[in-house]
Design brief:
Layout lengths: L2 H6 L8 H7 L5 H12 L3 H9 L3 E2 L4 E2 L2
Antiparallel strand pairs: 1-2
Length: about 60
């Protein structure tokens, strides 16, 4: 699921999370969010919020202390 990289891409920051999901074939934003959360352990909107402060560790799927 490479949409995680799209969510982290500063050039795509203006796209809503649902639009990122649609780019990867998810017609339903809620389904995209649930699948993303179960795959990466954090909702896509939270990933964006966390990366704004530089607290995301993509290797673990969790925030750094």
């Amino acid at each position: 699921m490479e949409d995680r990289h799209d969510l982290l891409d500063p050039a795509l920051r203006s796209l809503p999370v649902g639009a990122i999901g649609a780019r990867w074939g998810f017609a339903n934003p809620s389904h995209f969010s649930r699948l993303f959360s179960s795959t990466f352990g954090v909702p896509p909107v939270e990933l964006r919020r966390l990366t704004d402060g530089g607290h995301w560790s993509s290797g673990t799927g969790r925030t750094r202390p």
